[in-house]
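DM from R.C. (forwarded with permission)

"hey, sorry to bug you on a friday — could you get me a structure for this? deadline for the figure draft is monday and I only need the backbone to look sensible"
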Amino acid sequence: MAQRRLKQARWVAGACGVALALWFALPFGLRHLEFFRVRRVEIVGLHYLDAAKVIRAAEIAPRASVFDAHEPVAGRLRALPGVAGAKVGSRAPGTLRIELDEDQPVALTPKGDRLAMLNERAEVLPFDPLGAAPDLPVLIGGGRVVAAALAMAKEFDPSLFARIDAAWRVGPDVVFEVGGRWFWFGSTLTAEDIRAVTAVEQALARQGRVDRDLDGRFAGQVVVRKARA
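My reply, with the result:
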């Protein structure tokens, strides 16, 4: 009985070994078949970059197979300006799937005779504002500090971010222009700062006092001032 069980265990181990070997060897054999050549490329997450530019950056070989290593392609895509992350997968028989995580623009800024889009690090993105038609605030000055504050506003309160017309820096502080009013914040914007200012804004709106600048630089309070003429 013991010998029989030992033989069964050896047979199962051998079968598993063969299956494992086939699992790893199969892609190497199939990659040379014409049926598994890459004939179609899907790009997911593309909003600002040009698809043709992405395909060129991927450098997919003319006779690439869906079983080829995907990481080299993903690495080339992650090196493309405007790309924050990239994953590459496949779907048999012949589709390569690219998932892009593009840098998110948070502002427009003058650059020569046109506008350029900036990310949260105040880096110019290789996106065409005319083609993408983004509804973004204009960063007048302040660079990285203001861009980071806009990114935080976008994350914490998208509805407020959508109403910001322009943003700049005054000393260490950040000013958002919202419908002709100034919203002041410290250089490190928090969700609580935004909640406090927008709560006061809503209370003033209920009273019909909409022409007020709001200063949220002070812990625990919001200073209300008459907006400039």
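R.C.: lifesaver. The helical segments are 2-30, 51-58, 71-78, 129-132, 143-156, 158-163, 191-206.
me: no worries. Residues 2-30 form the longest helix (29 residues).
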